[in-house]
Amino acid sequence: MKAVRSKILIVEQQVSIRTKICTWLSQEGYAIFECKDAFKTLRLARQILPDLILLDTSIRGINTKQLIEIIETDQLSKVVLTAESINDDFMQLLDETTLKKFVKKPIDRNDMMEIVKASLVAINEAKKAKSQRDRELTDSAKAAAIVKAKELIMSKWNLTEDQAYAYLRKKSMNYSVPIEYIAKAVIKKYQPKP
Amino acid sequence: MKYISDEKKELMDLIEALDVELIHLQFTDIIGIPKNVTIMAHQLNKVLESGITFDGSSIDGFVRVEESDMYLRPDITTFTVFPWTSSPKEARMICDVYNMDGTPFEGCPRYILKQAVKESEALGYTMNVGPECEFFLFHTDSNGVPSLEVHDQASYFDLAPMDMGGNARNDISLTLKQMGFKIEASHHEVAPGQHEIDFEYADALKTADNIMTFKMVVRIIAQRHGLHATFMPKPHIGISGSGMHLNISLSNPNGTNAFYDPKDELQMSSTAYHFLGGLLTHAKAFTALTNPTVNSYKRLVPGYEAPILIAWSLSNRSPLIRVPSGRSESTRLELRSPDPSANPYLALAATLKAGLDGIKNKIEPPAQISNNLYEYSDTEIDELNIERLPSNLYEALKEFSQSATMREAIGDHAFKRYKEAAMYEWNEYSKYVSQWELNRYLRKF
């Protein structure tokens, strides 16, 4: 199976710098998108959901701090900043990002590639960890619902635990829905109202 | 720390528990533009006790420089946290405007609506309004200046992927729900880039507050999507404009619908007919308030489902007022002319006053129209004695100026200031030489 190319959105006001970055990253095999202002960044980010955004801190439109906040809070992507000078204002912006990574201008190809690769690795690790956590939460929520539903059925109809589970499984097969859906329906119907 | 009441203490505790740091004190000027003073959360207790002063002369339509000090008093029941803020967390409270002597400022639009509501309650009625607000979503250029380039080419009730504005619209609906709105419908409208979100009806004051909040949320969430939201009534020739239909009913003191009478042929009560009669009678006069800009009248033209004639119908969407088919508690009148550039407080005060005048004077409406009015010729319309809505802001202001009912509806101060502001708008527009004129006349003459 062909590997999925990571999507990178380049947000850079100056055409020459933008072209250079796009060319380098494209040669490395990334799927590249580009724009030069904050509003288009938001429109594009919501459309393509890039894995990473390389964001020039001097772009026009919305205030950069607010732009980073929207991108990261709405989980559109993760941000790596690019800037000419590293000063207090820049450090405040860097603090807004999750990755806390940046590329200083003038951009060196090798430096940039290292940071992009490291960022994508970090993003993928974080995604995997989150998926795992979500799965565990879902599994434990699922298990808790089934336990609760069994208790309610056992109490209502004087069944053994095995009989209660068989009841839920049969319903699940009859209606072609996951067993936890049946469990939730049982809880909703038979759980005593407060 | 000393608190004025338990209610206020509860609010302060809530603010601390939610980590709210900034509070926006919001109010509306006479034109309908939202205004805002921001305070730190720790200042709120003092503001709740004694209000916050501001310079009223810098607000359009308020007061002159010599009498400029005014103060804002927040309405605690309107406290809402902005869901899109996290660090710092921000909230808002809608305020009423007061004079320095502690009396309500007569030009405060919220106060004006409260007065109309009081009059209605004295007659035993509560006005309920369910608005249907339409708006456009446009792209912006690299400087953030809005363009007329739409975000999609979809049409009425279209789904994604045609409806690319659907994501923004969904986010807007979810945000409104988090702020306590009950969203009834959300869909793409007829024109490319046009959307509609309807929320549940409420009493007049709450609805007016909701409309201002709605417009704020739409703009902010649109911006978070890199889009510009506009409530301009007709941004583009040749496509539908944006309206703000108002579904109006009155309820009795026991909460039942005062417009419903099962014994009537149309199941409408005499109260409903008289309210309808009042709306039709005063329609020309209140149009300056429900359609306040020069651009509003570019929408009120034939062929785009906007009304142009002062008539009513059960089913037809072409006249000014439609009576939707719902009955019992859903019996209502749909006023189709208002557009979302209107100041909702003044628009609702004016329409309520018009309706109440109909009730007090038992104004019977004319017979309903069953055909499509767009297909009638001018002669046929004259023969049926159907009057037209004003065709531009100047005509609307003329009707408005001559109306004692509208003067009573919004009070002398707002009546005078509104007229001045709107006439200024008209005069500026009249001086402007448009591209249409250049295209048409530059070579011809």
UniProtKB/TrEMBL annotation, chain A:
It holds the Pfam family Response_reg. The modification 4-aspartylphosphate is found at residue 56. SUPFAM superfamilies: CheY-like (SSF52172). Residues 7-120 form the Response regulatory domain. Keywords: DNA-binding, Phosphoprotein, Transcription, Transcription regulation, Two-component regulatory system. The keyword Phosphoprotein applies. InterPro entries: ANTAR, CheY-like_superfamily, Sig_transdc_resp-reg_antiterm, Sig_transdc_resp-reg_receiver, WalR-like, WH-like_DNA-bd_sf. Residues 126-187 form the ANTAR domain. PANTHER family: REGULATOR OF RPOS (PTHR48111), TWO-COMPONENT RESPONSE REGULATOR ORR33 (PTHR48111:SF1). May play the central regulatory role in sporulation. It may be an element of the effector pathway responsible for the activation of sporulation genes in response to nutritional stress. Spo0A may act in concert with spo0H (a sigma factor) to control the expression of some genes that are critical to the sporulation process. This is Stage 0 sporulation protein A homolog.
From TrEMBL, chain B:
It is an enzyme of class 6 (ligase). The keyword Metal-binding applies. Its EC number is 6.3.1.2. Keywords: ATP-binding, Cytoplasm, Ligase, Metal-binding, Nucleotide-binding. It comes from the Bacteria. Residues 18-102 form the GS beta-grasp domain. GO terms for molecular function: glutamine synthetase activity. SMART domains: Gln-synt_C. The keyword RNA-binding does not apply. InterPro entries: Gln_synt_N, Gln_synt_N_sf, Gln_synth/guanido_kin_cat_dom, Gln_synth_cat_dom, Gln_synth_I, Gln_synth_N_conserv_site. It is found in: Cytoplasm. It catalyses: L-glutamate + NH4(+) + ATP = L-glutamine + ADP + phosphate + H(+). Residues 109-445 form the GS catalytic domain. NCBIfam families: GlnA. Belongs to the glutamine synthetase family. This is Glutamine synthetase. It comes from Fusibacter paucivorans. The gene is glnA.
